[in-house]
Specification:
The protein is mainly α and 193 residues long. It contains 5 helices and 3 strands; from the N terminus they run H-E-H-H-H-E-E-H. The longest helix is centred in the middle third of the chain and has 55 residues.
């Protein structure tokens, strides 16, 4: 009898228990969906910051100068290869098999050397570009963190990141970040002098 009385009580309280559990889960979901009353969100276009701050402009100009100089050197080597190939085509009918194979091998070695030099240079430039970008990104990250705290912003998203597709009415901090970065850079440069 005691067990059947307990079952009756559980049956009476079960709908109320289900209702309370459902309400608690709904409240948790709403709390996760809205982080704080009137959450304030901001965005920063990191690419625009890097392209518009003086440090980024100087780094880009330096890389472009290196690229142009290397392109000039590579074009000269390519022209030499083209000349070598034309001479080989003219001489090929007059050369014996061993001489033709030797010239062809020499051309292939120079061609592969040029390709390897191009690839090595491209990797070198990518590395330099990443290093310059990363240096700026670290400084920008600190600035954004400080600015977000000062302005009471709950979250700051990078506009070019793959995950952000939509954000309702974000505050765009990009121009402010550029101005703050430049101001900080000028303070740093005058301190170095």
């Amino acid at each position: 009898m005691h067990v059947s009385g307990l079952l009756r009580q559980v049956r009476q309280w079960l709908p109320l228990l289900v209702l309370c559990t459902t309400y608690a889960r709904t409240s948790e979901a709403q709390a996760v969906a809205t982080p704080g009353a009137g959450g304030k969100y901001a965005v920063v276009d990191m690419q625009a910051v890097i392209l518009n701050v003086d440090e980024g402009k100087v780094a880009r100009a330096d890389l472009e100068k290196q690229i142009k100089a290397k392109e000039k050197d590579l074009m000269k080597k390519k022209e030499e290869l083209d000349k070598m190939n034309q001479e080989w085509e003219k001489q090929a009918p007059l050369l014996n098999e061993q001489a033709r194979m030797g010239k062809q091998k020499e051309f292939q070695e120079k061609f592969m050397s040029l390709r390897n030099e191009e690839m090595t240079f491209q990797n070198e430039i990518k590395g330099k570009e990443q290093a310059a970008t990363q240096k700026i990104a670290i400084a920008v990250s600190k600035l954004v963190n400080d600015m977000a705290k000062q302005r009471g912003v709950d979250m700051v998203f990078e506009t070019n990141s793959a995950g952000l597709l939509y954000l309702k009415d974000p505050v765009d901090m990009t121009k402010d970040v550029i101005a703050a970065f430049e101001a900080q850079s000028k303070k740093g440069n005058t301190a170095k002098k």
